């Protein structure tokens, strides 16, 4: 029983950012707990990159599209072979879908959506936000292997400079009772708030659905995702996938720009762990200013178009 | 078509959360049916209205959790089972073991849950129940069609949506957007009062209480986040100056350009 196994995902031949983050914290845990860092992937293309992040081996199951049961079977097989002390999943849609199923099969627990991890006295210790970030629970995982899912953007992705990881093929049974019939991508190139480094969010101050164009224009210019307050989602101005807050996504991007968002308690809980927060609001008393690093009291309809043009100019240089 | 809906009873999302020891201080908190469970319940009631059958609401929790079952019955669920226990003493796998055992005692074609309990925000119980029952799972669902032993579901993933197809019985976890939950009608509230809630203990389900309540993930500390003091506030009445101030911040402090 030693080492750390990380479930990784490959997109367009590259490791997802959240997977690189999980590998990075996984390497630190392996150093503390003893044993190697190894990875699981569905594509041997991950081997070189995973090696750079410190993985010694990559277990590759040739199952093309993610489905829960096929991946549970393949990953369980690797867990049984490797006998790791810790198994990490990046908290992507697939990671969150798979971790509990694998854990239940192994009769172990999961520390879910964690933003800190350490190896302490032979146990995995994690910090996780609860009540959408209004409190933090520190948990100790007592079952083995200790399983955790990591919150995207909470851990820095840092290369360790290793050579390509050794590829170990896993003979996997790809049958699954659930079939992916189709994948619908609504708007080409649209980023998800769950993983984005930059989020531009709009609130009720936008006044109507069409004015989300002010938010979209800046988001596209700066290369960020479009976020939204619950009020705008409930009003039907924008799809709930964009909602940030307690009944939406809890996010921690590098930069969060909130325009016309007053800052209801459940919205603040969902974004206040962002590293840099800019708020634009007409009301100087808006609660959003309590968490903003830079608060601008002004009219978003006048400020955002100028800012969007300035960002475009800065990007062009 | 019979369905089971698992619901949890959680502090209202607008609550001010206070910490007491390793737990949330429940004094004075208003409890509600977890918002994602409301989407699960609504979907099951619509299914019943379309194809008949029973909707059994199931909860694991202390006595106050019966209010959540009453609320669900008032909205249109037809039966209710309360497994009594201090749910905060169990971890997600323990809860899943209780729910899976209870579900086995109820006739069903499909089992609904919210994608996560609001508050604890783990998002683990649905897939764990699926594994314990040996069922296929469709997780974080925004659209559903069920008929003739077949189930088609739209699953939300990062920036896209997957259309999944599977057979029943299956586990469905509900995401916001699946439907618009209804309010209870006065007639529903009156009718619900006549329905007896079935009450069982963990032992009644044939489970070993020490296994169910054996925490594999133990909360060792609970704390409030550090209060943010708020940063600079500037006057934005000149849009050009405001945009320049933001641009400077984005470049120099966030280093995002």
CATH topology of the largest domain in chain A: Rossmann fold
**Unreliable residue runs of chain A:** none
Top CATH class of the largest domain in chain A: Alpha Beta
Shape of chain B: globular
Measured as a percent range, the helix fraction of chain A is 25-40%
Topology record:
The complex is a heterodimer of chains A (317) and B (257).
Chain A: E1 4-7, E2 10-11, E3 14-15, H1 17-33, E4 37-41, H2 46-52, E5 57-61, H3 68-82, E6 86-90, H4 93-106, E7 110-114, E8 116-120, E9 123-130, E10 135-141, E11 146-150, E12 166-170, E13 179-184, E14 198-202, H5 212-222, E15 225-228, H6 230-234, E16 255-259, H7 265-271, E17 276-281, E18 294-297, H8 300-316
Parallel strand pairs in A: 1-4, 1-6, 4-5, 5-12, 6-11, 7-11, 14-15, 14-16, 16-17, 17-18
Antiparallel strand pairs in A: 2-3, 8-9, 9-10
Chain B: E1 3-6, E2 9-11, E3 19-20, E4 23-24, E5 31-33, H1 35-51, E6 55-61, H2 66-75, E7 79-84, H3 92-104, E8 110-114, H4 125-133, E9 137-147, E10 150-157, E11 160-167, E12 170-174, H5 186-193, E13 198-201, H6 209-212, E14 217-223, E15 232-235, H7 239-252
Parallel strand pairs in B: 1-6, 1-8, 6-7, 7-13, 8-12, 9-12
Antiparallel strand pairs in B: 2-5, 3-4, 9-10, 10-11
Helix pairs in contact in B: 2-5, 3-4
